[in-house]
Amino acid sequence: EIVLTQSPGSLSLSPGERASLSCRASHSVDSNYLAWYQQRPGQAPRLLMYGAFIRATGIPDRFSGSGSGTDFTLTISRLEPEDFAVYYCQQYGGSPTFGQGTRLEIK
Amino acid sequence: QVHLVQSGAEVKKPGASVKVSCKASGYTFTGYYLHWVRQAPGQGLEWVGWINPSSGGTNYTQKFHGRVTMTRDTAINTAYMELSRLRSDDTAMYYCARTTRKWEPYDYWGQGTLVTVSS
Fold first, then answer.
1. pLDDT-based confidence at B65, cuts 50/70/90?
2. How far apart are CA B43 and CA B105, in angstroms?
3. B35: chain A residues, CB-CB within 8 Å
4. A22-37: average pLDDT
5. For residue B44, which residues of chain A lie inside 8 Å, CB to CB?
6. What are B92-115's pLDDT values in tens digits?
């Protein structure tokens, strides 16, 4: 099983600032089968990125993904109020596993 | 548009079983896999398994082997997840989510079904 470790556990920033969220895998993720999800309180997760750097349909371009192998990053270039949520990474190269999440809070 | 609508919240006693449904609309039900993912209160996401609505084939994570059964009814475009021998640590929100192939990211999710296990 691939274990995903996200850091930081929580991040406190202001609207307009840049956020960088990390996801580190215990083993290399095949073919960059790495996705990111956003979960707002009381809602189901929403797909943001897949294939490590491909934005899902309707996701604004302030969201970007990078990385390969075992180290991946989700960057939000200029935070909007609706971006404050919990973010999860997921590997889907086999039995899927998720990171424990990063909580992005308003400073 | 694509919708996955799940059944309502359940409260069960330890040792009982629960069956959660996920009704699909807006796409060809047999053309996509349906996965089940759960989230304990205040916790992260955990994959439970998937069903191929076309063939009925299933794949469960080892942790739930012997306790989880996924089925479908293609006549009404609905998938089901049944979890037996419930324990208090099965208390969670259970989501169904769609993928194009068996190992893909989840592009649509149901709204979730809260299952509470309490004596």
1. confident
2. 20
3. 96
4. 93
5. 88, 98-101
6. 999 999 999 999 999 999 999 999
